[in-house]
Amino acid sequence: MENCTEIFDVIVVGAGVMGSSTAYQTAKRGKKTLLLEQFDFLHHRGSSHGESRTIRATYTKDFYPKMVLESAKLWEEAEEEAGYKVYFKTSQIDLGSSYDKSLQAIISSCQKNRVPVQVLNHNQVSEEFSGKFQLTEDWIGVVIEHGGVIRPTMAVSMFQMLAMKNGASLRDNMEVVDIKKDPSKDAILVSTRNGQMFWAKKCVVTVGAWMKKLVKEVAGLTLPIQPQEITVYYWKIEQGHEAEFTIESGFPTFSSYGEAHIFGTPSLEFPGLLKILVDGGHPCDPDKRTWSASPDTLSATKEWIQSKFGGLVDSSEPVLTQSCMYSMTPDKDYVIDYLDGEFGKDVVVAGGFSGHGFKMAPIIGRILADLAIDMQAKDVDMKHFNIKRFEGNSEGNHEDFDD
Ligand SMILES: Cc1cc2nc3c(=O)[nH]c(=O)nc-3n(C[C@H](O)[C@H](O)[C@H](O)COP(=O)(O)OP(=O)(O)OC[C@H]3O[C@@H](n4cnc5c(N)ncnc54)[C@H](O)[C@@H]3O)c2cc1C
After folding, report:
1. What is the number of the ligand 1 atom nearest to the C-alpha of 176?
2. pTM for this one?
3. Which positions ≥6 away from 68 have C-beta within 8 Å?
4. Distance CA 137, CA 360 (A)
5. What are the pLDDT digits (tens) for 162-182?
6. How is residue 384 annotated by DSSP?
7. Which of 215, 101, 90, 88 is CA-nearest to residue 154?
8. Which of 250, 297, 376, 397 has the fewest Cβ atoms nearer than 10 Å?
């Protein structure tokens, strides 16, 4: 196959949700964009496939809610351009003991960001959600209206379609093995395993769980990003109660803080089933996965369902499981920065989304387009995401509670 000798404005490497959203943003700004993916488009071997992701403005760290609110608007703008919906709104409830540090931090970060928040005791939670959640006396519920479900595979496909509609070129089965400066063309040269070469003024690398491997390979830099395998469980709602767990009946997206951080979404993608899982998994090599679940996450989820849903959901065994990957940083904050070194500001990397990136894909795409095209990101304090935060401080922005 002939190599493509044209020089793109931006090459985006990795067509998960972050790369696809970025390609849409750069193409929309009139930049000649190429999106490269190592596997088939919409494959199930990374982090962005599947049927549901939560969007919620409840975060312990107070720089995230503002980003969620901008992202929510950008999801709606993209939906409008595409002509179909991928984002289904409902409320969000965060549950836990009234002393839980995460819940206290969430309440404070909502208040700082002027996100209206209701703090309900166990009886009020039961009333608000018609007896669905059964909490002990010492538990509270923190409720906000900015929750919802995003349909991931549909959303990735939407961004790819919009990128193409705005003039981007998309190529799958193109594993990038090298990224380097090409002084002869005053451009970045991106090479693939099958011998293709592509040039661009700027390159954005969004390769999810492969970030550590690729960045080490091309720049010799070791990013503290650990891939983790995680299992998604679907549980059967008891017969006759299925409709009560839907968005139409006011059922929320939810997170529960305690010994395990559990989260779930209303019944949507598979009628009669609820998605409930533990936020965590086991470390993995993205190219040598076991595709197996961690037994402790299954038992923790069963116990939680038994104690919180009072028999309305069958906790004996999940009826469906799916495997996925997180890319964890030590502080669970993203890494979004220039690669620097010989690349200066010509190569931008974005990864380490630590199991909470999907909802942010539209704003991350906007930020990455800003960084590649305008050399700075508007209205976001990038210090939380810089690579250098781990230098001499392996924990980065770590705080003593979960996100
Ligand atoms: C089970 C599960 C539940 C989650 N729940 C939520 C949630 O409720 N809310 C939320 O906000 N987030 C959630 N997340 C996190 C969210 O899905 C991720 O943060 C997000 O999908 C990361 O996207 P990405 O584009 O960075 O990575 P990926 O989707 O993995 O995309 C990276 C792409 O790069 C490609 N690639 C890798 N190496 C190369 C190479 N050398 N050349 C070319 N291409 C390459 C890969 O094949 C892949 O397609 C969840 C994640 C999982 C797994």
Report:
1. 42
2. 0.97
3. 55, 56, 57, 59, 146, 359, 360
4. 34
5. 999 999 999 999 999 999 999
6. G
7. 88
8. 376
